[in-house]
């Protein structure tokens, strides 16, 4: 039998051709060979229960047979055309029907692109330049989105500081940074900048931090008061928190939302969705050359991603899927409580049953700074031990999938007990 190339060998090869030895996304020492259902295998042959699920898209698990069948049916008919295709229209219909804010949709290939265009649309629609973003909010890699994404230095609000080199100061000057979950701050900020703010972009649940009751409603009211475009970044929460996303779950409808991850069923597809009068700025015939937002992309709406999305959404519409997903989340959260309560360390499970993480802290985190103040050492011991016992996840998030099984739950429970022991030993 041919000897397999080990992860260490792949890492050495990767280092030669990839800066930082990887794709920039995840621990570059790991190489995933295969994923099936709820499990993934690395190139050393280790098996894991997958709570990373491609950073969100694989909500149905890897290689869902119905999604695969649909994709395999499309592949011989063509991968991409650049031109309109019927599957892209069908998926757009499904999405606008699902999302409370949905009237029209424009496709792009990644969530970050969708966010970039949503902010640009807000500017085109209002004729104003400033964008309000929350500290710690993640909206992809555009220059605007890189402002105060993960700052280690804490500056006074609303000053924006870039988390990336190569961004001109002029971009920072147009961004206003606010703390999440702080109604008084938002009220005073918007009053001070009356007539200058084009859009507010927000993750309705910021990374893992839930909105406090009334916070999203307040953003809606304030946006209406000042004629500001309210953008929900639902790249993560769309079709995960509920079929109609966080806007359905929390009962607040934005003007625009951005979607990605689940809607492409594991293929590159994302979208800007929202009010037709705002989306009209993609249509030169309606808004004229001056109001027009030029937007095109080679792979936008490609039929392979579209059919994977159509099938994924069809499966998600079936009875009981979201109850099942929430049930898995509750089960894992109960395991964590059972294992960590006796340890006597301060911790909080932060998030939603469909997406959460543990922060080792005594106080409920409400903002980015609260999460940052958690005990990083305990978090590292927790995550390293989970990995060593067959749990594949990012250090910042736990994503349950619909493919989880009883056997996965047993393995998860064992790993969580071990992780709690490791945290206990830190003293
Ligand atoms: C809330 C949010 N917005 C935007 C993005 C960017 O999406 P993409 O990685 O597809 O560009 C992500 C990615 O994780 C995200 O979590």
Automatic annotation (TrEMBL):
Superkingdom: Bacteria
CDD domains, sorted: OAT_like (cd00610)
SUPFAM superfamilies named in the record: PLP-dependent transferases
Cofactor(s) needed by this chain: pyridoxal 5'-phosphate
Cross-referenced PANTHER family: GLUTAMATE-1-SEMIALDEHYDE 2,1-AMINOMUTASE, GLUTAMATE-1-SEMIALDEHYDE 2,1-AMINOMUTASE 1, CHLOROPLASTIC-RELATED
Similarity field: Belongs to the class-III pyridoxal-phosphate-dependent aminotransferase family.
Protein's name in the database: Aminotransferase class III-fold pyridoxal phosphate-dependent enzyme
Organism in which the protein naturally occurs: Cognatishimia coralii
């Amino acid at each position: 039998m041919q000897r397999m190339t080990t992860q260490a060998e792949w890492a050495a090869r990767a280092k030669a051709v990839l800066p930082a030895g990887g794709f920039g996304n995840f621990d570059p020492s790991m190489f995933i060979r295969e994923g099936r259902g709820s499990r993934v295998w690395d190139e050393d042959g280790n098996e894991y229960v997958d709570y990373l699920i491609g950073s969100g898209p694989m909500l149905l698990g890897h290689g869902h047979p119905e999604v695969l069948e649909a994709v395999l049916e499309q592949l011989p008919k063509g991968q991409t055309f650049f031109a309109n295709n019927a599957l892209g229209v069908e998926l757009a219909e499904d999405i606008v029907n699902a999302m409370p804010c949905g009237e029209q949709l424009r496709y792009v290939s990644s969530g970050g692109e969708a966010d970039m265009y949503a902010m640009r649309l807000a500017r085109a629609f209002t004729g104003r330049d400033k964008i309000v973003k929350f500290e710690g909010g993640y909206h992809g890699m555009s220059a605007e989105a890189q402002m105060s994404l993960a700052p280690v230095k804490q500056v006074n609000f609303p000053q924006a500081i870039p988390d990336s080199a190569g961004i001109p100061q002029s971009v920072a000057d147009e961004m206003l940074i606010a703390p999440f979950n702080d109604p008084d701050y938002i009220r005073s900020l918007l009053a001070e900048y009356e007539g200058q703010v084009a859009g507010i972009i927000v993750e309705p649940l910021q990374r893992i931090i839930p909105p406090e009751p009334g916070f999203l409603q307040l953003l809606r009211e304030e946006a209406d008061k000042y004629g500001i475009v309210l953008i929900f970044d639902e790249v993560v929460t769309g079709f995960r928190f509920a079929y109609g996303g966080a806007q359905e779950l929390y009962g607040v409808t934005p003007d625009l939302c951005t979607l990605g991850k689940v809607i492409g069923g594991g293929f590159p597809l994302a979208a800007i969705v929202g009010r037709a009068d705002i989306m009209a700025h993609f249509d030169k015939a309606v808004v004229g050359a001056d109001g027009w937002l030029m937007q095109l992309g080679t792979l936008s709406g490609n039929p392979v991603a579209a059919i994977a999305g159509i099938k994924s959404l069809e499966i998600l519409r079936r009875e009981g899927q979201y109850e099942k997903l929430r049930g898995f989340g509750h089960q894992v959260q109960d395991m964590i409580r059972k294992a960590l309560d006796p340890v006597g360390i301060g911790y909080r499970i932060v998030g939603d049953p469909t997406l959460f993480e543990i922060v080792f802290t005594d106080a409920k985190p409400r903002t980015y700074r609260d999460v940052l103040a958690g005990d990083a050492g305990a978090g590292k011991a927790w995550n390293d031990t989970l990995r060593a016992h067959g749990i594949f996840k990012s250090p910042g998030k736990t994503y349950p999938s619909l493919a989880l099984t009883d056997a996965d739950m047993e393995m998860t429970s064992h790993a969580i007990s071990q992780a709690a022991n490791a945290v206990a030993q830190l003293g």
